[in-house]
Amino acid sequence: MRNQADSLLGTVVENHGAVFDVLLDDRIVRCILRGRLKKDKRRTVAPVAAGDRVHVSLLERDRGVIEQVLPRTAELARSAAGSEPLQQTLAANVDQAVIVFAAAEPRPDFYLLDRFLVVATAAGLRRVVCINKCDLVPLDGLSQQVSCYAGVSDDLLYTSALRGIGTAELAELLKDRRSVICGPSGVGKSSLLNAIAPGLALRTGAIGEVTHKGRHTTSSITYLQLPFGGWVADTPGLRQLGFWEVAPEDVAAAFPDLEPYLGRCRFPNCSHRGDEGCALTAAAGAGEVDPRRLRSFLQLGGR
Question: Are 190 and 203 in contact (CB under 8 A)?
Answer without folding.
Answer: yes
